[in-house]
Amino acid sequence: MRYAVLADIHGNEYALKAVLDDVKEAGIDKLLLLGDYVGYYYGADVILDLIRQWDFKAIKGNHETLLFRAINDPSYLKEITGKYGSGHEVALKKLKESDLELLRSFPHQLEFSVNDLSILLCHGSPWDNDKYVYPDADEDTLQKYDDQDHDYIFYGHTHYACELRRGHKKIINPGSVGQSRQKGGIAFWGVFDANRNEFEFCQTPYETKPLREIVKDLDPSIPYNYEILCR
Questions:
Q1: Measuring CA to CA, which of 10, 94, 105, 186 is 20 to 30 A from 67?
Q2: What is the pLDDT of residues 33-58, one digit of tens each?
């Protein structure tokens, strides 16, 4: 059993389409999705249409939490738009009720087993969905994984790919598909091979110019959303 592991797509349909082309070419037909389908960029509706075509397991990210809070709170929508750009605002205009129901149906964490391996999907960490666990995580943070009885813990949130070890546990962030903070124009993801008990990090280049032009048009006051695509 092989899975493509994807995190932090953030409305970047250009990156996701390129990744899914590579996933198909690799002969993989199952996805593990680690949250943050919305936020920053503007193709959340396309993202959901694309993932519906696959056999997938999915969880929410913190940006889905932001989205649902913003639905009934215009002042909060204004606040997160000022911080992250208009991705959430555009998502609320484009997403159908069936799209919102799909996002609502995703749990914050998901446990499952395959080939006698115990797997946990979370967004930030097993103890806090909004916790940032970076590649240089300190010992106090790593010790918190000692209570987790899983062979693999897949997480996202930081937009940095890394693998941490704690005893027999492999704690893996595949990196961000839609807004990597490692290299612009590269979508980071990975392949989990449950038969071989292995994980492989993958990188897929994609063309950023169309998205950069949209960012300049919709969010000229938030240069980060543009610059991170070029880094």
A1: 186
A2: 999 999 999 999 999 999 999 999 99
Cβ-based neighbour number of residue 86 at 10 Å: 20
In angstroms, the CA 167 to CA 180 distance is 28
Cα separation, 142 vs 215, in Å, equals: 37
For residues 72-82, b (16+ Cβ closer than 10 Å) or e, as one string? eeeeebeebbe
Does the predicted model carry a pTM greater than 0.90?
A: yes
Radius of gyration of the chain (CA): 17
Q: How many CA atoms lie within 13 A of 205 on its CB side?
A: 3
Domain 2-110+174-227 is in which class? alpha beta
Under DSSP, the state recorded for 39 is: S
Q: What is the dihedral of CA 184, 153, 20, 130, to 10 degrees?
A: -50
One-letter amino acid at 187 equals: A
pLDDT in tens, 58-96: 999 999 999 999 998 999 999 999 999 999 999 999 999
Contact criterion met (CB below 8 Å) for 48 and 95: yes
